[in-house]
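Why does residue order matter? Because the sequence determines the fold. Keep that principle in mind as you read this record.
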Amino acid sequence: MKKYVLSIDAGTTSSRAILFDKYGNQCAIAQHEFTQFFPKEGWVEHDPIEIWETQLKAIRNVIKLGNIKIEEIDSIGITNQRETTVIWDKKSGKPIFNAIVWQDRRTANICEDLKKNGKDKIFQNKTGLILDAYFSGTKIKWILDQDSNHRKKANNGDIIFGTIDTWIIWNLTSGTAHVTDTSNASRTLLYNIHKKKWDEELLDILDIPKAILPNVCNSSEIVGITNKSYLGHEIPIGGIAGDQQAALFGQMCVNPGDVKNTYGTGCFCIMNTGKNPVVSKNKMLTTIAWTIKNETTYAIEGSVFIAGALVQWLRDQLNLVKSATEIEQLAKTVKNNGGITFIPALSGLGAPFWDPHATGAIMGITRGTEKGHIARAALESIALRSRDIILEMEKDANTKFHSLKVDGGASKNNLLMQIQADLLMTKVVRPKITETTALGAAFFSGLSTEFWPSIDSINDIWEEDQTFNPKSSNLNYEIIDMWKKRVLKVIS
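Structure:
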């Protein structure tokens, strides 16, 4: 009797494995961190072998912790840090270079040169993405350009590329499956999201041979079987999705206009836009959310660079609180922000401002300003930045969202969630299971094997923890009005 789906959550700092039962309950979790390498300023790398070894260790540990038989696992779903790039030798399985992480900025000059040559519109029109070092395409080009042998081997198909999902699946199947899904492919700068295939023109521009690219599959589809030697049993791999898309599905945002926001170090906000891609007029990213039974759902995505990181800054640099969880209580010591506006531009400002040179500011300080006012204004700033993005998404999609589903560490802050509801004037819904990224990967996998017979059957088990209903007040309008005026003062 199949009782569990195993979810692999291959993150930026750790490899995790989580067991879910038929009710979507988290039954066991194992996690192992891996090394972060910073060889030069702006460079971020991982060791792909270490990622694979820690991931395999996490899988084996979670089976022990769950005290289950391997035969009870129905299938495996995989979600991953999306744009991180690995190239490895097809025969030996050894990487030819460290994984270049999504945060890495070494290819910024390549992007600038392409923009100068007017190529940015071609990429945006075909991929829905802004031409930026964030994505995989220029990372692949950079690695191949390091050695003429790399390019020769690439042309012959002797070396192959993958994002972390592809790398782990290739290893789990002992090299029999070289695959990714549409959500991850759509983050490479190489995949035409309209035609749903690798784009020859984009490959030519970046001088990348098609032979190195993985086969693109559905997000919910059996793509391979694990080699028996690793886990003692063959298990089908039935789900793949990039982390934010997986979280969107894990939140059951399956209808156009459904929105989720993940409150982590930053905020990642994604809106389901249905069966047609929506081209953003506000520099949001158009992306593939998932593909099920060859039917693709699209989304638009915007990110806030600083969210939970702001609370960390108040803790570590200003010593305003001793732990991040104390921020809520401190903010509750005052009834309002005392006229304070916090502009959280500690790493510039993203959409819709897109000013990398903007700096942070605390405005409106008087003799009467207390620590609680600064704490409250900080929480408001996270909600206001999310509001900026969500309102632009609504305009782009020409749709009004009904509620905001939330997850991530900072979503446990009840005051922040209430502030978010008030400033958006819509309800904010937090689920019982907050591991929504891993849960989404599990759902995709379980759908492919009929562990869950339909999306409706998954919807039936999805449970909310708490709903925060908006409270209308003049104060909300004052906060928004002050924000609109003051944020313009930090834009360079």
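The radius of gyration is 22 Å.
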